[in-house]
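Format notes (please read before filing issues)

Several people have asked whether sequences and structure tokens are stored in separate files. They are not. Every record keeps both together, in the order shown below: the sequence lines, then the token lines. Line labels are part of the format and must not be stripped during preprocessing.
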Amino acid sequence: MKVAAIQMVSTAVVQDNLQQARTLLQQAADQGAELAVLPEYF
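Then the structure lines:
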């Protein structure tokens, strides 16, 4: 199983954080990740 640990810099703008998370999750999936974890406060 391929696992991705997503690292990102969060801001106070929730919508921006969600969009960045979507982009990073898609990149992880494109690289074969079956499980991805996000920071606690994304």
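For reference, the curators noted about this record: The helical segments are 14-30. The chain has one helix and two strands.
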